Each structure stands twice: as structure tokens, then as C-alpha cells.
Input
Amino acid sequence: MKAIFKRELKAYFTSPIGWIFIGVFAFIYGFYFNQYVIELGFGDISNPLASGLLILVLLVPVLTMRLIAEERGSRTDQLLLTSPVSVTSIVLGKLFAALCVFLCAVATTLPYLAIIAVHGAPLWGKILGTYLGYFMLGLCFISIGIFFSSITESQIIALVVSLGVLLMFFLMANVPSVGIGVLDKAIALVSVTEHFEDFVIGVLKIENIFYYLSFSVLFIFLTIRSVEKRRWAN
Output
């Protein structure tokens, strides 16, 4: 897994994808920081980060689209699948590389904490909660993205399908109540923003952490099964 992780992480930074992802992320959240903290005077960065969730939905599929689809399209996955490396190690190595790039992007917001600490009174509970929520959300989104990258040879298809699914999860929060208890609960259950809101206000609930971990584990498992199916098919 370590070798896969290093290879994928190097690939991100020897190609434009990793730098573009980090650069766009830093630019957009810098804009939100200026709007909320500098102009409106909020004492933390929870609001800028929370306001940028849609941007996260749009960016993460770009990060994950190539992870497995690229190798399938170029047929280099044959060498990987016949190597003495377990499928689980392959999938986790790729996932952790994407997660590392994601965390590098999130780390570009850390200097803002120093600015807030110097010029105001940071609300550390909300700030730490939001960062934890971002980590859980990033892991969840990347897990979904790598699954769809594993079922196609086209990076574009992986990008479009991942984006569509993440948008669906994101927009669930805006679906009006239908008045049917079970259905309303189901809609709230799959809404990523419903579970993220508690993190933003500094409230940590086990069920919210379990929600994101469950989604992540489910899609990691599906990805492993998808890659294993291809290995045995060859």
C-alpha cells in the first residue's frame, strides 16, 4: 500500500491535477474568508468553509476521476492487478493519496487562523468541529469518487457520474418535506449537509461521524469488489 500511495501522490504533483485542485481550493476559500471575516467580521472560519461545500462537491470528482479509470483506459491496470499486492492495498493506497492532496488543500486555510487569533477571539470549538467535518466529508466524497472511477475506463464518465451523485447528495437538503415520515427521514439520512451542520456549530455527535464513516466504508468496499471482479476476469 505504501508504494501505491507514494506513486499516486507523486503523480498528483507531477501533473497539473494536484496543483490545480489546491490552487482553486485556496483561491475560492480565500474569497470566502475575505467576505465573511474581513468584511462581515465573523470571528472564525467556519462560515467560509461551510459556504464552500458546493465547491467541494465540484472539485473532488476532478481529484478522483483518474485514480482507477486512467489505468483501465491505458491497460496499465493489468500489471498492477497481476502484482503481488492485494486489491485492498491498491484501493487504499490510491484513496489515501487523494485524501492527502485534499488535506493539503484544506491546510491552505490554516494561516487564516493566525489572522483571526491576532485580530479577534477565535471560536476554537466551531473551528475544530468544522475541520473535523471537512475531513469526514472529504473522505466520504473521495470514497464515492474512487468507486465510480473503478467502474469505467473513461475519466470523463467517472467525473460526470461522481459529480452527479455528489450533487444529488448535496441537494437533498433542499428537497421540501413530502409529509411522509419514512420518506422524509430517508431524504435527511442521505443529505450530506444535514450531518455537516452540527460540525460547523461545534457539536460533535457520534451518529454524524458514523454516518460519514459508513458511507466511506461502503464505497471503499464496493470499489474493492469492482477491482477484484476485474482481476478475476483477467
